[in-house]
Amino acid sequence: MNKKNPKGKLGKPKIRRIWRRNPVTKIKESGKIYKRKKWLNCSDDEEKELDLTKDLEKTYRYCPRCGAEMVEKDVDHKKRKVCPVCKFIFYHNPVPAAGVVIEKEGKILLVKRKYEPYKADWCLPAGFMEYDESPEQCAIRETKEELNLKVKLTGLFGVYSGKDDPRTHAVLVMYWAEVIGGKPKPGDDAEEIRYFGKNEVPDNIAFLAHRQIIKEFFEIKLAESNE
Ligand SMILES: [Zn+2]
């Protein structure tokens, strides 16, 4: 029996610094309100957005399947978060996305983003794949949702790695597409739609991969005009 705790009573539990009640997230089902106090060692700025791109520390802390605290383990030659209870392994994979390059008289169609990340910047029509989709289906659906345009894919433009999206790393599959129906109208995530010529492309292009695609598009157009 030690001096600090002469009666052998259990001390106060240590303050856990994971969640505290505060008006940030209201859970609809239970009506409870939560705010994340600290996400391990990241700053308040980083806390605003759940950033899965940096390191393992900032990914899941609790098993998304059973809720137990995850531990780091070497699995398949890499440190991964593993659930000691249900053995769930969190493979931190990039997320596939697909989009389209639509051309009209040598111009390329771009979309002004309505939401973060990169709100009000321009990008190509593209989006993340649903679990039950193929990349082709995803590209066609995203074009319909964002532009109200029905398209036919006419070929593969290229495959790109997207590492500057704060939500996740992406693998972007881009197709050439031809409009076969519908009138362009900004949809779900779009504020404005416009075709841009080589010298009209705005500076604020949302993603590095999209900048690369636009650059390649005009290089292809230039090569074609020189043929
Ligand atoms: Zn688990």
Q: Any overview of this molecule?
A:
With 227 residues, this protein is an alpha+beta fold. It folds into two domains: 19-90, no CATH class; 95-226, Nucleoside Triphosphate Pyrophosphohydrolase (Alpha-Beta Complex). 16% of the residues lie in helices and 34% in strands. It has three helices and twelve strands. The strands form three sheets. Strands 6, 7, 8, 9, 10, 11 and 12 form a seven-stranded mixed β-sheet that branches. Strands 3-4-5 form a three-stranded antiparallel β-sheet, with no helix packed on it. It has a two-stranded antiparallel sheet with strand order 1-2. Strand 6 and strand 7 (107-113) form a beta hairpin. It starts with 18 loop residues before the first strand and ends with a helix.
Q: What characteristic shape results from the CA principal axes?
A: elongated
What is the gyration radius calculated from CA atoms?
24 Å
- Write out the distinct hetero groups bound to the structure: zinc ion
Amount of helix: 10-25%
Proper CATH architecture of the largest domain: Alpha-Beta Complex
Number of strands: 12
Please outline the helices and strands.
Elements: E1 19-26, E2 33-36, H1 44-47, E3 71-75, E4 78-82, E5 89-90, E6 95-104, E7 107-113, E8 122-123, E9 126-128, H2 135-147, E10 150-162, E11 170-181, E12 190-196, H3 208-226
Parallel strand pairs: 6-11
Antiparallel strand pairs: 1-2, 3-4, 4-5, 6-7, 6-9, 7-8, 7-12, 10-11
Bound molecules: zinc ion.
The site of zinc ion has 8 residues, from loops.
